[in-house]
Amino acid sequence: MKIWSHVTKAGLVVALVVVCVIAPTLTAGAQNAVDPDAQSVLSSMSNYLGGLKEFSVEYVAVDEVVTAEGQKLQFLHSGEITVQRPNKLFAIRKGATGTAEMVLDGKTLTLFAEKPDAYLQFDAPNISAAIVDLHKLGFDAPGADLLEPKPLDSSTADMASGAHIGMTYIDGVEVHQLAFRGADVDWQLWVTAGDKPLPLRYVITTKSISGAPQYTLQMRNWNTAPDINAARFTFAPPLGAHKLDPSSVSVNAIGDMTIKGK
Q1: Domain contains 211
Q2: Measured between alpha carbons, how far is 208 from 7 in angstroms, rounded to an integer?
Q3: How far apart are the first and last CA of the chain?
Q4: Do the Cβ atoms of 81 and 19 come closer than 8 Å?
Q5: Cβ neighbours of residue 238 under 8 Å, at least 6 residues apart?
Q6: Which pLDDT score is estimated for 101?
Q7: How far apart are CA 120 and CA 53, in angstroms?
């Protein structure tokens, strides 16, 4: 789980960013103190969201970075995600560094930035493989846990303990508030009540880094039966766009890519 402690990186910023999709991946841990109510809500959410063949959702995310001097800085971005399981994905991200898109067409993953009009491509036969590619590039892929076939599955999540904190409301919608503790991270999840348990808020705190930076993902306007145009998952490079070699880029503190040597 990479959370950088200082926001400095030489080079030309290429605003290619994992858009949801993208918080540190939670690794396996003991489950010896998980409240049955928390486990029940988490399992219901995982089964329901994982069982959706397609969906779309809008999001707002906050990446928190701790500087070498101990100051916390928050970087905001927002966008939307469209998923058609198992192998198609479209995501757009808008932030201070510009607009970026991620497109998975069933065999190729493309990361594209409007400025400076550049893109990267990888072979990826499905969404899970695309997430692996992003990790290899250096992205922590915030929120990618929710795109897996078994989102936040209790058998693989870093979950030493967990509790059902209670009921509350987000934008007028009643939600369960869950809180979990793991070896490396603490995380919270707010899940809608009722027969369509969907996550509305997801917060991860990285305990192993000084200052305990957080990643927050707020989700809204879930559509579990979207009318998707097939062209949504097709990437056509704009005129003049240039393709980058993955070996020529690196990832900085807020998830943006820079061209090495520039």
Answers
A1: no
A2: 18
A3: 27
A4: yes
A5: 117
A6: 92
A7: 27
The sign of the torsion formed by the CA atoms of 24, 207, 197, 227 equals negative
Q: Mean pLDDT, to the nearest integer, of 231-242?
A: 92
Residues 6+ apart with CB under 8 A from 55: 49, 82, 83, 222, 223, 224, 226
Q: Residue 63 maps to which CATH number?
A: 2.50.20
pLDDT at 7 over 50: no
Q: Is 162 within a domain? A: no
Task: Determine the pLDDT at residue 207.
Answer: 92
> Which single residue is written with the structure tokens 């998923």?
83
Q: Which domain holds residue 40?
A: 13-156+216-250
Residue 193 has pLDDT above 90, yes or no: yes
DSSP result, 110-127? EEEETTTTEEEEEE-SSH
Would residue 8 count as lying in a domain? Answer: no
- The vertex-148 CA angle with 205 and 63, nearest 5°, equals 30
Mean pLDDT for 132-145 is 76
At 202, list the tokens: 């997801």
Residue 10 has pLDDT above 90, yes or no: no
Count of structural domains, the chain: 1
Give residue for tokens 């707010």.
190
In a domain, 255, yes or no: no
